[in-house]
Records
---
Amino acid sequence: MKWERLLASGRFGEGMKPATSDTVRSEFEVDYDRIIFSAPFRNLQDKTQVFPLPEQAFVHTRLTHSLEVSSVGRSLGKSAGEFLLEKYPNLQALGITSSAIGSIVAAAALTHDIGNPPFGHAGEEAISDFFRLHPMGRAWEKHVRVDQWADLVNFEGNAQGYRMLVSKQFGLKLTYATLAAFTKYPRPSLIAQRDIARKSQKKFGFFINQLTDFEQMADALGMEKISQDSWARHPLAFLVEAADDICYSIIDLEDGCTLGLVTFEETLKLLKPILGDKFDKEKLKDRTQAQNLGALRALTIGQLIRETVEVFAHYEENMRKGNFDKALTDMIPSAKALAEISKVSVQKIYRSKVVLEKEAAGFQVLDGLLSVFSQALYHQFYAPEYFSGQDKSILRLLPEDFPLKGWGAAVNPYPMLRALVDFISGMTDKYALNLYRRVKGISFPGG
């Protein structure tokens, strides 16, 4: 893979453009602005990060998390860009700047959670479990292809995000480079054999009906295949992944400390190995805990950014050749310290009572919503003898643009099911909970 093509600024439907910078905004800055003003991005303000929609302003939502990941991503991208321009002077002659590279990573990082359903990762599992285990979900298996069924029983927020970013519904028309940097897992759900040694093979990055879109993007950027059904990552995707890893490791720990799930002393002990000689206990005196946490977070993230860029520079050629496929944060000097933070976070934060209660509620809500809408759709088009007045009322709650025509026993319902999952996964936590209560008769509109 060559940087000249990897950094090209073409968009879907608009052909390829050289990677030159506009005098006002680069094409990649345009991407960033389009994302900020999009409806899917705004919805992240009411989606769970870790803790369930608390009243405390200091705890993060998906929106604040995404903004922070984007900020770290921009720093990573600009620093990596300076290295690339020094190593490959021809890039500068093409009009490529370190700021443009930073903008690619920032825009991709801004969208990294855009496909996540309500209730965080529990929501992903709830959607998968509905099709895999619920009788009303399993009823669809005989009507779809094997690769389509693999999509439905393995809901993946990354693939849902890619679907949203290329969807005509939202009209984002992002550059190929930003979309590729977003795609951490450049493969479909069903592949012949997964290489467990490659980080990019851990999950999948697009649903089967987005395969043509992905192939178009990969061809435009010169992304190389590593097997019959999988591609090598765009090198900037490693930086997007690192930005996310850095933020959730450090900021989830900060939130856990603020909520009293982890003591300040334990938080300090976990961060010391990363900070090294940058840690000065004297500076913590005569300040509030919140101020100290903020200062420690900033110093820690700054150090992790520097370490990550050094590792990126070291492995950059192997990334372009498709030979490097690990998380950058697993390769930095602070990797052991991050692993210890992750271990403590799992024990004391992610398995805390408040988080587990939120996850349990998420399973009930999403399973309940999927069951009533799925049953109504199945009865109308695939078992009309059971279609009831209740089903008719439920279907009227679907969005106006929901595809409700052309289905029947002889028609593959996969596109309709994808639209149903779009509807459910696109909900905010509060909307999903309120709609669940209403369709289940637990509460009434205006009540």
Note: The chain has three domains: 3-117+156-235, 118-154+352-447, 240-350.
---
Amino acid sequence: MARIALIGAGGKMGGRITDNLLKTDHRVAHVEVGEAGIAALGKRGLAVHPLEDALRDADAVILAVPDNRIGQVAAGIEHSLRSGTMLIVLDAAAPYAGDMPKRSDITMFVTHPCHPPIFNDETTPEAKGDFFGGIAAKQHIVCALMQGPEEHYALGEQISREIWAPVMRSHRVTVEQMAILEPVLSETVTGTCLTIIREAVDEAVKRGVPEEAARDFVLGHLNVEIAIVFQQLPNGTFSDGAKLAIEKAKPELFRPDWRRVFEPEAIRQSVLDITRH
């Protein structure tokens, strides 16, 4: 059992974490300042703890606050953290940007969900509808021990598995690798490509294709094409016509140097955009 201070406990993310921590034997102090968040905790029958009281004897402090507020909140609690306390952040942006407390005597742990995979074995309506994860659908997670003794990793991973439950695989990465995964891989590249796909659907509709037909067609093709690209189908491959279309369209749709978004300077700028907006 650990003593956990959950800051932002009544928010959207904090509420999910609160619900999962209630299933554990940890002693959790819920910290919330927003009226809506306080009301949300009240509906769960949970009291709000004063910040200083929550931090006083906490083994771990979870910052369930937006990326652009993590630096501000972390600075506000820096001098109230006991030596040896684990500060858990739910995204790599602020740590990568250098927004964490400059204290060598505390542990800093970063964790983030992979979210439920497209290819899964979920059978219940609740799990099938849990696209984000952390409620009913199983998901993988990534964890990074940014700073602190190696023996603290086990506690950080345990708490991570509990707040993102149900969890399948837990991948250990560095903060730098986590920043490559998000924002670059998941948002800069994948999110942008999917946004373009949606805009392409809208363009097809604009040119006369029935909206429902365009949606059904692209979602079905996404399913099989993702299975092909990520080798989920034995001997699955694109048709010769599809290969030709991809070969000709790729230089039209993407700059030849698009991989520069993975360069350290590009990652840092993306992270600064997220944390400073």
Note: The mean pLDDT is 96.
---
Amino acid sequence: MVSKFHSNLSKDLSLILNDADDYNVIIQVGDNQNMKEFRAHSVILRARSSYFKGAFSTGWITNEDNMIMFKKPNITPIVFDMILTYIYTGELDLTIHLSDDILGLLVATDELLLEELFKHIQDYLIRKRSTWIQRNLVHVLHTVFKLVRCEKLRDYCLESICLDPQPFFTSKEFLSLDKDILYGLLKRNDLQIEEIIAWDYLIKWGIKQTRENNDIIKWNDKNYEDLKNILNQFIPLIRFIDISPADYFDKVRPYKMIIPNNINDEVEEFYYKGKIPKITAYPPRTGMILKVESKILKSKQFNIINNWINRKNSSVILNKNDLLYNFKLIYRKSRDGNEVIRNKCNDQGSVLILIKVKYSEEIFGGYNSIGWIKRNYRNKYLYTTESFIFLFEDNNDTKNMNISRVIVPSRAIYDCPGVISFGGGELELSYDNLSLSDSTYYEDGFIDDYLIEGEECTKYEVDDIEVFSVS
């Protein structure tokens, strides 16, 4: 058996990085006022990065007094300091760094072929910095869109936009969006936006690129020709058959001159004769978003819960053939006060409960498919095969959520006074306390990760609760 002594190795290598005087590489990173020189050892850089192995063996570098001189103006000092820490010690604490610096680190590790760190950072941004990504979608997309290996983060951004495109299209940054990104979005069938709205914002984006006056009454033929040249590749992506005749007349027809003649002929034939176009043959955009009155979860996450109730996978895409549920809010702690939640659930049929705990972004929940009845409490288990408990990492999570379905139907719900209890207390709610216990009657899953070691039950203080009747 091989003995491992990694802890001291990492510490000793960090001393080499920070204090050694036998370095043979000087790397200058950043530019202008944000420039810094780092000292390093070529043997360590070559061993840890195939990029440096290749760079030090070719003509990319210069030598001065037996010292290798290397410049990377496209990498900031903060980012390169993180890279050297990883290279020398195999350790890196991302929690202390700004999200923008971590994004820069992702780009740098892609260039420097640090595969292990690259994969970790991409996953970390999606799992732990999703809120920041949602607020900076244009910036993130412009940074990673053309980097082939950033496909996972790129797809995450595009899917997030498709699920809830309104904030993205109405943002100030939208008008500066790269044309390839906009093309990729409009081409997607899962972009959940009304077609006339997609058309409106395409026109606004195009006018911004031409730098023309927004008042088309003052336009001449050249203005229209300039707009046509910019939007030529985008026009076939618009699903004109999903635009109402009134919207076509008011909002599309004024820009008739920018639509290629063959497409325009087909579109007008559709509106006049009902003939389906062949050239603009993209299918209608699929998917829909449930509209639910919730301050804890977003509508796209209710799509996931809807699929869970239907025993489908965790896709956020709902189609017209799916069985859709109505989630009616019947109680919110922050609105209705500290009432006995169990009483609010009486005679409501199927019930969904969401629990936001304090000092955390996590959202716990449970679905009782048979509901509770207003009568004497039975202090007994209720039978159902369809109940489940679940966890979302935060209110943007559509990738890492976890569901545990009941596996002992005769112990699915425990009916007792003043308490909401799933199984044998796997998830139990009472006033301001949430309790989690070892999984016995529900599938093994997220519960075990949230139990304090050595304790049978772990309690969390509740920040807010929402209860929905489900029909």
Note: Residues 164-273 form a domain with the Serine Threonine Protein Phosphatase 5, Tetratricopeptide repeat fold (CATH 1.25.40).
---
Amino acid sequence: MRKLHITSVKPGDVIAKSVFLENGNVLLGHGVELTARYIERLVRLGIDTLYVQDKHTDDIIPEDVIRDETRKDAVDTVYKTMTTLMDQPHMKGRTSLPDFGSSFQKVFREILTDLSSRRDVLVNLSNLHVLDGYFFHHAVNVAVLAGVVGLAKGYNQQQMMELGIGALLFDIGMTQVPKELWTMRTELTAEDRQRIQYHTEDGFNILRHQHNISVVSAHCALQHHERYNGTGYPRQLSEKNIHEYARIVAIADVYDALISPRPFRKSYSPSDATEFLFASGNTYFDLDLLKIFLQHVAIYPIATTVLLSTGHIGVVSYVNPLAVSRPIIRILQEEDGSPVASPYEINLYDKEWMTVTIVKSL
């Protein structure tokens, strides 16, 4: 299969990976043939990339680190919990919600099982969802990314659960913010910005009243917008004064936000997002944690279409964990723009190709 920007997709292309609604249900399943009407609808819903079937890349299959069933269950749990709180903002977390913590313990246990069974797979967040589903899918992606870092650090079972639940629920305070504020396409006023910033304290207050959620998990909600140099909020904490769980969640939050389309901007490519993060090491983010994170994320995920410095266009077919920026590329288009007679692969890690670089993802 091949990942393409929505502007490069055409009627007759066949979907190779499902597109999801905000609650985790399937909007368009794999195997569906696209029509002009389908494409127009996907654009309206904020979908900016799709995986399509391609006879030259049918054997290229990107692996997510968690199973589709695990993701669906996790998104559904997040969706039900968050929408309940959105509908009942007066609760403000002052009362304990029945089975709240145990539901999320079950969800993250399933995520952790998947992560533990595929420790060597570089993270490739290949799930696609409508723009309105960002809030719910984002929570699951942040939990996956945070879990990868926790495992790499050798966290024990208790630490993994504390981190994972904190990551799943880190943005729960946004349920107390009027939806029109966090979906605005225009610049926020100072008053609106301040109201949104309260979501960290609102989230902490919701979580600390749940009898089966650890207070350190609640600190992920409180501190995920703190920055390593003390310029964050709500308390302008710096360095090790920010709980390590929150420092991990902060990295995962920003990375997934960058690679996701938002109402006010297009998505970043994974390579651009990782470049931004690395440049922010020991300024916004803990550099030691950031290095661990970047060792486990695919800069050029499998099935990504890329332009090479030679002018060739190809698709990433394999990512070398020892050199994530030098993948194997299946060439589909020659440097003069003509399609290849027969696709062939080049390994950018091999000596003969070391001068060739990836210019950008397409």
Note: The chain has three domains: 2-52, 68-294, 305-361.
